[in-house]
Amino acid sequence: xxxxxxxxxxxxxxxxxxxxxxxxxxxxxxxxxxxxxxxxxxxxxxxxxxxxxxxxxxxxxxxxxxxxxxxxxxxxxxxxxxxxxxxxxxxxxxxxxxxxxxxxxxxxxxxxxxxxxxxxxxxxxxxxxxxxxxxxxxxxxxxxxxxxxxxxxxxxxxxxxxxxxxxxxxxxxxxxxxxxxxxxxxxxxxxxxxxxxxxxxxxxxxxxxxxxxxxxxxxxxxxxxxxxxxxxxxxxxxxxxxxxxxxxxxxxxxxxxxxxxxxxxxxxxxxxxxxxxxxxxxxxxxxxxxxxxxxxxxxxxxxxxxxxxxxxxxxxxxxxxxxxxxxxxxxxxxxxxxxxxxxxxxxxxxxxxxxxxxxxxxxxxxxxxxxxxxxxxxxxxxxxxxxxxxxxxxxxxxxxxxxxxxxxxxx
Length: 411
Description:
Blueprint: H1 24-29, H2 33-44, H3 59-74, H4 81-84, E1 94-96, E2 113-115, E3 118-124, E4 139-145, H5 148-157, E5 162-163, H6 168-186, E6 209-216, E7 222-229, H7 240-260, H8 293-299, E8 311-316, H9 336-339, E9 341-342, H10 346-354
Antiparallel strand pairs: 1-2, 3-4, 5-7, 6-7, 6-8, 8-9
Helix pairs in contact: 2-3, 3-5, 5-6, 7-8
């Protein structure tokens, strides 16, 4: 049997100097929990000579990286200080709800916790109202973070831009796959415990989806990106109090969309009422639940033609939750990772439409044709059929539809 064709060549991010054949994406994909935290701490502590790049090696930026690292480490399984306290264990920064009451008389309907947040400022999409922007892209966004999964995405997004040549196959798909792997290394409990590879899992189901949104910088020299995950971080039981806790978290993410997407695409009364992604029985995605929430807030200049370069991909947790663990990154078009790419749900597709971003750049199959298939068809080449009657029309790429998928938050 012939050897499979070579996989797509990957670019080298985050200080990968290209001096050997150990590409950063492939090495980082195999990291265990201690290796993930160790690599992050080394970067944040100025002990990685190549990462972040020179233009980000400032005292202020290292201070931000160390803050984000310290926060996410405190929420990591199994010994993070804010993971363990207050009980029960949770990957969400929280405090006891004073209205919950002592155990013997505690409320059966009120959330046991209240959310605590860490605020971080990030330079995001173009904003004409900002004078003398501190970077090539000029929207200064200060947003609250409280979940480990989004903090991991923020940390990776603060390590520098992607090269201008970056596309799904050589950069953003492996980046999102590494992000998903790191999230499930540090937090959450997979259905298939074999995929934890001997490490003690965290609490609650991990995010159902992981997402990366990217766009070209205004100066045309590189692309910048943000990573995010769908809502997760705790055990959301069916009891009224736990469901109130879940709704509290959903409302926090929803409020972020309402506050920061300008002009507003959803109103404050729309939560749980007018989202397009609703089933006939009343269930469906709530606004702000999706993995796109943080990336869209940072990356979309709402209603602006400058969104014409915005692209994105969503990756389901399927490839990291297997009975036989996926231990190595593979970018073959017929492999488990490409098979886990999904289109935007109806909510996110609506936001893409309203912001004038090209829907085709978020489609499931976008750039898949550039990836190599591992399985080569056997047998002699077939003669192409001659079409005698049918006429095929090539549609403009911007008209390609985005297929809908409902992203369900894990209970």
